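Example 3.2
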Amino acid sequence: MSDLGVWLAEQSKSEREYLLKHQPRDFIEIGRDFNRYYGWVTDFGFIEAKLKLLGVQPLIEDYDLGRNADVLLSQGQTETLKLIQGAIRKSAHVLERDKTQLAGHLLGRLLDFEMTDIQGLLEQAKQSKNSLWLRPLRANLERPGEGCLRTLTGHTDSVRAVAIAPDGKTAISASDDNTLKIWDTETGTEVRTLTGHTKSVRAVAIAPDGKTAISASDDNTLKIWDTETGTEVRTLTRHSDVAAVAIAPDGKTAISASHDITLKIWDTETGTEVRTLTGHTYLEIAVAIAPDCLTVISASQDITLKIWDTETGTEVRTLTGHSDSVYAVAIAPDGKRAISVSHDNTLKIWDTETGTEVRTLTGHTSLVNAVAIAPDGKTAISASRDNTLKIWDTETGTEVRTLTGHSDMVTAVAIAPDGLTVISASGGEEDNTLKIWDTETGTEVRTLTGHSYIVTAVAIAPDGLTAISASWDNTLKIWDTETGTEVRTLIGHTDLVNAVDLAPDGKTAISASHDKTLKIWDTETGTEVRTLTGHTDSVYAVDLAPDGKTAISASRDNTLKIWDLLSGKEVASFSGDAEFYCCTIAPDGVSVVAGDALGRVHFLRLEGMGDLGDV
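Structure, written as tokens:
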């Protein structure tokens, strides 16, 4: 622990609480002592103590004090504070649930920065650990300034849509878990959960005043919500299989699009249906309302878009050009341009007054799911099943940059009113998160048959006479490698078995499964010795240390875990910012290498091994 950390720990409980809550601000506002302020907020002991007492957000806000007073700090000091704050903010979703990850995450994000004060902080972080932990040997997480600003976690199934309030401070997400969640975009905290829908929520829109939202669900209803209280105001029925919804700029009218091939215009104040628009010949997927409230554009799986007059309910024109289903449409703030996205992997920009196609934007390598246009109308962002978002210059049609970080398809995107902040949502099996982004920154010997489904892994005993296989048929099988015969089947896992490893003596095996557990087996008898629990999602990989007493596992829950096999206890954990798919322990028994869903290789070191004897 740092000298400051030791000193803080020696203070009385009330004094320590005051110091952690107020001292950084007192340094700035009362004492004008910027050097002492800077010394505190770059000290690991202070950072760790404040995180433990008050949580992530108050700690992040301490760095704003210095950045607001940057004229009194050197350029190097200001940059150091920015980097530390950025690292903490990017790791907030991990630190909120596991504060012991602080040292590992600071190292993982800041090791590449050679500033003296950064390296001093990281040295303090390393020295602070007095128990078993996995220490990153090189930067293995996104650095401050890269990728998204913050990750929002909370939904338990795919996130289908997201909308940002006009003030940019609040966002609402819609999910296949049947709920909507309201988020504080500045702190990344979940404000409240809106419950009421009985099936997947497909779309959400926020009224211009930010006080009302409307959601569309597979339960064949739309619901109007009071965003300030989280209460349901009313339910709109008589529209089956609703896929999209938009609110007019006046906040008094909403339009829903449905798989029943109709659009409906609603009076949001009374909840009554004003009229029904018909004309598409196949499922309608999306709808957008022009700023003048008089024009609506709908997108359909019939490969067309249609422009409608909302006052008369008549179809004005049909836009053709896409070669596959049109999945989303957005109208520019001036109402004169619209952008559509399609499963033909393209975006198209349209002149809404003439119905002509202005240009086609190409670059995505898979289906495009969503698009949003910045308030200035000059920039658009698209979301795709290729796991990326792309920023486009709408005036030239050129791709500005690609945003990567999601580990599955990106299903929705929204741009804040400042045009600089973007929130994206992922709805794939591997990723149910939202992310906030800053837009600026060889010979077959024989075949062994027996498993009834995919074989995912195999390990060979040191004597070379025995092998063990893992399969998605939920079993493991032990084989005689000389004869190719099955010796026995190990049954116990309740879901897919993803990985297996054998101890050096060949008598013990450990398996990893989709059932969130690892199991230790006696290979001579085929009996299960014990089950290791602790992961909260599928376990993809496992590796045994050379001594056969320690194992490491990698999971879809974004963690690596170290296990003591004699006791069956978890003795250390490292949380990343993506699913870990593979892991291994080097022959030295302490060096760890792991790979994640974003294509990165993590190098870590298992330290504090002496503590294992006390487990």
